[in-house]
């Protein structure tokens, strides 16, 4: 299965290839177990959507259509932070597979996996400090704080059938959208001539990130093992109640009974997915994702020249098209 981003954007192919090479160098560790655990994370591939967005914004704002060395390094740092968050997510959710490959805590053990995630966060912080840009350090450092906030919010709302869409969106911001928003803003910060558009691209990244998470959550209900690289319904089994389920609760009251017993009965997860599909909740969740995509598109369309914004619009449409 190909998990890499499949977009007709040839202008950054070389940068993506170089990024993949650099990531393995950047996670080098003297301890062979720690290195093997970290390498396992990157060997699973990924969509590389975050670096892609950084590269596209860099080319968009640089007058010579180039990506600076610092912006390339920021893309690598962002991907390391994202990957570190995944290994901790997999431990908390006890996932067996990630992108079709055995998760680190299952291949090694939980202690090694926790240390591997911590190691990646530490490596990203070291490379971040070496950018020698205090404002960028402050902006990107907030992402790690937000990850922790998101995990705590998710943890206290597990199997809570009273969770609102607003609470779900807030948690999704901390766990997913903050990384996109802050990395977009930091990309602008690394170009000293564009301080006045930092907030535009923060919001662009925020809305892309929220839409991306909502679509991921739809796919957890609608997708297959082949599509997801893990079993469908993983979020439900772990008590992580997402947009499709929240929006289906009023139409299918029996779902609440299965939530209250924490999907303990063997048929509960599949039965819940079936009931969600019998409502219009998936379409309503997709409409919610589209609202955020349209907000991201509006920011770009409103202020920036037609020729320059094509790829920024294309990546927004890609996020939405993953559901089809």
TrEMBL record:
Its cofactor is Mg(2+). GO terms for molecular function: metal ion binding; prenyltransferase activity. Pfam families: polyprenyl_synt (PF00348). Keywords: Chloroplast, Isoprene biosynthesis, Magnesium, Metal-binding, Plastid, Transferase. Gene3D superfamilies: Farnesyl Diphosphate Synthase. Belongs to the FPP/GGPP synthase family. PANTHER family: ALL TRANS-POLYPRENYL-DIPHOSPHATE SYNTHASE PDSS1 (PTHR12001:SF69), GERANYLGERANYL PYROPHOSPHATE SYNTHASE (PTHR12001). This is Prenyl transferase. It comes from Herposiphonia versicolor. The gene is preA.
